[in-house]
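This week, work through this protein record:
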Amino acid sequence: QVQLVESGGALVQPGGSLRLSCAASGSIFRLYAMAWYRQAPGKQREWVATISTSATTNYLDSVKGRFTISRDNAKNTMYLQMDSLKPEDTAVYYCNVNISSFLGRREYWGQGTQVTVSS
């Protein structure tokens, strides 16, 4: 009954920008902390950024100053604005959201969206 759908991944040149979206749908009571993770080929999934219910943000050091996480509570949607992209940002990006619903409070993951940074 609760789904997360990501969008916005694409092939982009180094130095370019992308905006990822993560939309939550279903019988949702409330969204709590929201986060982005990524997984590059052959590597473990790593945390990228988090935004709290009070809009406090935290970032992986390697993306600070280039990525901006935000949320629109009215739309149950989270965003990741990615600027000055580098080849090492290439990965599948996943959203992770703590949600309360009729099923109780639990974490949900999106299906992932591919970001490829290459010339």
